[in-house]
Amino acid sequence: MAIEVRIPTILRSYTGGAKVVEGSGDTLDDLLTDLDSRHSGLRGRLVTEAGALHRFVNVYVNDEDVRFLGALDAKLSDGDSVTILPAVAGGAFGFAAAAAIAQHAATGRRAPVTVG
Amino acid sequence: MTRYDSLLDACGGTPLVGLPRLSPTVPEGAPPVRLWAKLEDRNPTGSVKDRAAMFMVRAAEEAGRLRPGDTILEPTSGNTGISLAMVAKLRGYRLVCVMPENVSAERVQLLRMYGAEIIFSPAAGGSNQAVATAKQIAAEHPDWVMLFQYGNEANARAHYETTGPELLHDLPSITHFVAGLGTTGTLMGTGRYLREKVEGIQIIAAEPRYGELVYGLRNIDEGYVPELYDATVLTRRFSVGTRDAVLRTRQLVEVEGLFVGFSTGAVLHAALAVAHQAVRDGRRADVAFVVSDGGWKYLSTGAYGGTLADAEEALEGQLWA
């Protein structure tokens, strides 16, 4: 038995295009280290240098957000299903337009918009 | 209350109804575990977003940001646009909605009927295209007012001042509150209020997990977390896939006669998870969840009939919540 890990489209370059990979570990931290040994660079996309989960990455164990289960210390068991997703909000539009518009709002009604 | 001076005054005060058939059975002698649905589809335009729209417009008026005849610009995948369109019409503003083209036909028709103008952003272009669209519109019309529901405190405050107190009044024994996570306004506002008033209450978020198209970012750094979001308000957060959301949506109409949109199916899925856990733990639970809208606007998706696999396919790439 192993832990099944679902990889989002934008991170499949690290898994040779695979949607689902398998790994093992007692915690999420262990699992990501194990995955990185076969999919080099994957861990670095999910965990910051300070050792926390990336702000725009959501990881779910059996459909529950790991940030409420101890984050990287979340306990895992064989047979668990882990899903990694980029953070998007409020329907697909939110994540994209909101960033642009928030910047517009922050710079004032009449200021020009500069969004990278 | 059954008489109001205007439609705007009829916002909120929605019924809370018990779901005795869907509530889990508990062993003989064990404390009861009950599910309750807050029927936000009973608001003036048929969704929970009426509360936020009214509060955001009122706050902008009070701050002097909105004057009669002004234009409101809002990115929305549907319900907020419909609510704002109604409020804008009654308060004398023009509304321009920017929305992805992969929303259901009913939402577009409704918006146009209310007099809103719509600018579509291509679904397939992913975030980059949508950012470009929003950038362009904002730059071309710097005098348009964006209420910006993802970062507007009046969105969450609407729920702190109305949804939360209504729930506590109708269900003083509440132990869990479950709602969908989008702008996060409903959960932040209601959650904060209930945490202040009810010791040990659990605030549970259910977020829709869409098809892959929707997560078509070019890289992780293009992700977005709404400014309103504060994780410390939540106790748990579930990701609910399309299949589970459809299954629960159908179950709700089959078992309890409640015809709801798919986001409510996702919310029910999370509500049932915590309800069943309470049964296993032998604890009393009164789980209230939000019915954010009815199913009418989603009939054209075809996902109410056929097999679950058909429904899943019908909703692939659609914004069903």
SSE arrangement:
The complex is a heterodimer of chains A (about 120) and B (about 325).
Chain A: E1 3-6, E2 20-23, H1 28-38, H2 42-46, E3 57-61, E4 64-65, E5 81-86, H3 91-106
Parallel strand pairs in A: 1-5
Antiparallel strand pairs in A: 1-2, 3-4, 3-5
Chain B: E1 16-18, E2 33-39, H1 49-62, E3 71-75, H2 79-91, E4 94-100, H3 105-113, E5 117-121, H4 126-140, H5 153-170, E6 176-180, H6 185-197, E7 202-209, E8 236-241, H7 242-256, H8 262-281, E9 285-291, H9 308-315
EC number (chain B): 2.5.1.113
Protein name (chain B): O-phosphoserine sulfhydrylase
Pathway (chain B): Amino-acid biosynthesis
| Secondary structure tally: strands of chain A | 5
Number of helices of chain B: 9
Mean pLDDT of chain A: 82
User: What is the CATH architecture term of chain A?
Assistant: Roll
What portion of residues of chain B belong to β-strands? 15-25%
What is the level-2 CATH architecture name of the largest domain in chain B? 3-Layer(aba) Sandwich
The SSE string of chain B, one letter per element, is EEHEHEHEHHEHEEHHEH
Oligomer status: heterodimer
Task: Please compute the radius of gyration of chain B using only Cα atoms.
Answer: 19 Å
Largest sheet of chain A: 5 strands, mixed
How many distinct folded domains of chain B?
2
Radius of gyration of chain A: 17 Å
